[in-house]
Write a structure and sequence with these properties.
The chain has 2 domains: 87 residues, no CATH class; 93 residues, 4'-phosphopantetheinyl transferase domain (Ribosomal Protein L22, Chain A), CATH 3.90.470.20. By secondary structure, it is an alpha+beta fold. The longest helix is centred in the N-terminal third of the chain and has 16 residues. The chain contains 3 helices and 11 strands, in the order ββαβββββααββββ. The strands form 3 sheets. A 5-stranded antiparallel β-sheet has the order 7-11-10-9-8. Strands 1-2-6-5 form a 4-stranded mixed β-sheet, with helices on one face. It has a two-stranded antiparallel sheet with strand order 3-4. The two termini are 27 Å apart.
Length: 199
């Protein structure tokens, strides 16, 4: 099922009643890793209608947060400059959050197609490309296990950001938004159809 911006609820406070969207992202201030983990557990509990003490989070070998003892609930988180993006979804998901200000482009970590895309779009597009790339790695469950070359990011004919595994066998669903001025948030799901790359 394609992911659309209408499938994502972005909230600023973890309250008792959460939107019933397939993907919920809480953007909350959180400096410390322990505060991010606690807020993520609270968001997960609210999303599932459980008490906070019924939620046990851990990390898989790739560093991805997982909910212990429950199937069909997928988590992802990112943090930058004191802001955290905490995600709970009904499908494999990756989320990343970056400042939207361009800096020096690390051309050496880009795949050739990505470098050509940035040459065409300009360095101001790098924060968006990188945010999608990091979220895609998380959605595929690769996290820290693989380098950025494991994912290919591009744009389709309509200018929407796209992502797939670098072999082109698995297409991912990408939504990129600016939740606040100066920030870029990517939500990527791995529930897209598998595709066969040409030989």
């Amino acid at each position: 099922m394609p992911l659309d911006v209408s499938d994502i609820a972005i909230i600023r406070r973890i309250g008792e009643d959460l939107p019933r969207a397939p993907v919920v992202v809480a953007l909350v201030p959180a400096e410390e890793a322990s505060a991010r983990r606690a807020a993520h557990a609270r968001l997960t509990a609210r999303r599932l209608g459980l008490a906070d003490e019924e939620i046990a989070l851990a990390a898989d070998p790739a560093g991805r947060p997982v909910l212990l003892g429950r199937e069909g609930v997928f988590l992802s988180r990112a943090a930058r400059d004191g802001l955290a993006a905490l995600c709970v979804a009904d499908r494999p998901v990756g989320v990343d959050l970056e400042r939207a200000t361009p800096g020096e482009v690390p051309w050496n970590v880009l795949l050739p197609g990505e470098a050509r895309l940035l040459e065409r779009l300009g360095p101001q597009a790098f924060p968006s490309l990188w945010t999608v790339k990091e979220a895609a790695l998380k959605a595929l469950g690769l996290g820290f296990l693989k380098g950025p070359e494991a994912v290919m990011v591009g744009r389709d004919a309509d200018g929407r950001w796209t992502a797939s595994d670098a072999a082109g066998r698995r297409t991912l669903q990408v939504v990129l938004v600016q939740p606040d001025p100066g920030w870029t948030l990517a939500v990527v799901t791995a529930d897209g159809p598998s595709v066969t790359s040409p030989d």
